[in-house]
Amino acid sequence: MKINIPVRQLALYVLICLGAVSAFILFGHNISEVLSDIVIGGNAPRTADVVWMAVFFVLSALLTFLYRIVSRRTANARIERLGQKVLGKIDDSTMKYSESMMNAVFVHLEKYRPFEKVFIPTITQTMVRLCAIIIAMFFIHRAAAFIMLFTAPFVPLYYVLVGLRTADESKDRATQFDALGTLFLNLIRGKNTVRNTQSGQTVADRLKAFNERYVKDTMAILKYAFQSTLMLEFITILGIGLIALEVGLEIIIFESITFYAAFFTLLLAPEFYNALKVLGIEFHNGKLAQGHLEVIAEWLEKESPETDYRLIGTGDDAVELKNISIGHGDTNFLAQTDMRVPSTGFTAITGPSGIGKTTLLRTILGLHRPAEGEVCVGSDDIGYISDQVYFSDTTIYDYVSEGNYEEAEVSAILDELGMAKSINNLDEGIHTRIVNHSIPLSGGEIVRLKMARVLIRRPGIILMDEPTEFLDAKTEQLVMEHLEKLKQDAAVIAVVHRRQLLKIADRHYTLSGGRIVPQEGGY
């Protein structure tokens, strides 16, 4: 199994582990000397041996503790960097992969964490411990060393065979988990459709089938783990038993070994086989975690643009589209067309539904990469009022202010948009909580709340998607008056369906036949 860590980090791990196991072996040497003096010599132990025994025991414990701290901090830092790579994949194409991204960050990344935090440090520590003990055993009792060398390969060999199968099974489970999570999230999003079409039972049956398959396959992996642990215990007991038998024969029948060597051997033998057992268990766990890493790697390998297709702060115009072509999949909305929007004024964009108006706004904003062409924007200070919105668990004040404006400023912008009365009628006013995407306002008021969040910032470029949707005539007139003032100092680009807004438009473009066509006379 490949352990992909920097050489300097591996060298640090090995150095600390070597110090810890060396201190433990020296502790074993001193305690063997002390017991030999007591049991064989019938004498009191020498003070120096007792002191050194205590020193080496404490040193071994301290170095082991230090290793745990260093390895955890290093692992957390590596996981954080991997997480940043995953988050760095969020781009204009990420929306359709949102469930995979969430699973990569919140599920597979956490499932992989034990590989960095436990597996790599444990494997390094175990290998150093095994090598140090086997070398020491050749100086203490050569026959026991040969028994260790003969029995040791059975553990890693068995676990390599089991672990390879486990990795494949684990990757399959990770893929199934993605499918189950994606299905669940999509069903939550489409709950109204499920309810309106009376498809509840069908949905429940499908979720049940996914869940039963996932549980069944997960239990198969647990079965492998149980069988592997049982076999590992058998090999460990057999190896320790053989060494104990050999030492017993030599000390009792052949009288060819000293008490010191016998005790030292029986002290190190369990440490050797326990280290082997840990190696086997961690190999199994490591292959499980590696399955999740492969899923993350596959997600990271999805093609994504390395550079922003937009140029910021170039030219005098707020927005300039040069030879732009945009679309979704095989559907092309615009083909090699141009558009310029001055730094102030109201620009209206119209066209039939589904012709690409919202996609054009997302392209300007940087959320949709064009097939070709270039987008130049005068500033990255852009406000976007979408026809969709997600309210996290927050308050109205926090949603509008984003932590950057005082209550008086928030109240003032809400008052300008004619929302003061509605907000003040709520029990907690602007501090009313928005829980589970539920907000006690009408559709028109939610539209104005979205506008307030952007307008309070007074950005130089404002993009709007259906800004007067759900508004009654009176409120629409109020918003139009506000936009007429706003367009004096900012470039407002709005996708509109309601003809009333065209009255304040300084420029009017229609999407038609893959082109952005200017309309004469504004409207």
TrEMBL record:
Domain ABC transporter per the UniProt entry, residue ranges: 319-523
PROSITE patterns reported in the protein's UniProt record: ABC_TM1F, ABC_TRANSPORTER_1, ABC_TRANSPORTER_2
SUPFAM superfamilies the UniProt entry points to: ABC transporter transmembrane region, P-loop containing nucleoside triphosphate hydrolases
Predominant localisation class: membrane
Subcellular location: Cell membrane
Start and end residues of each ABC transmembrane type-1 domain: 11-288
GO MF entries: ABC-type transporter activity; ATP binding; ATP hydrolysis activity
GO cellular component: plasma membrane
InterPro entries per UniProt: AAA+_ATPase (IPR003593), ABC1_TM_dom (IPR011527), ABC1_TM_sf (IPR036640), ABC_transporter-like_ATP-bd (IPR003439), ABC_transporter-like_CS (IPR017871), P-loop_NTPase (IPR027417), Type_1_exporter (IPR039421)
Membrane topology per record: Multi-pass membrane protein
Alphabetically ordered keywords of this record: ATP-binding, Membrane, Nucleotide-binding, Transmembrane, Transmembrane helix
Domain of life: Bacteria
Pfam families: ABC_membrane (PF00664), ABC_tran (PF00005)
Transmembrane parts of this sequence: 12-31, 51-70, 118-140, 146-164, 224-245
Cross-referenced PANTHER family: ATP-BINDING CASSETTE SUB-FAMILY B, ATP-BINDING CASSETTE SUB-FAMILY B MEMBER 6
Known role: May be involved in multidrug export. Transmembrane domains (TMD) form a pore in the cell membrane and the ATP-binding domain (NBD) is responsible for energy generation.
Identification of the protein by name: ABC transporter ATP-binding protein
Organism: Salinicoccus sediminis
Taxonomic lineage of the native organism: Bacteria, Bacillati, Bacillota, Bacilli, Bacillales
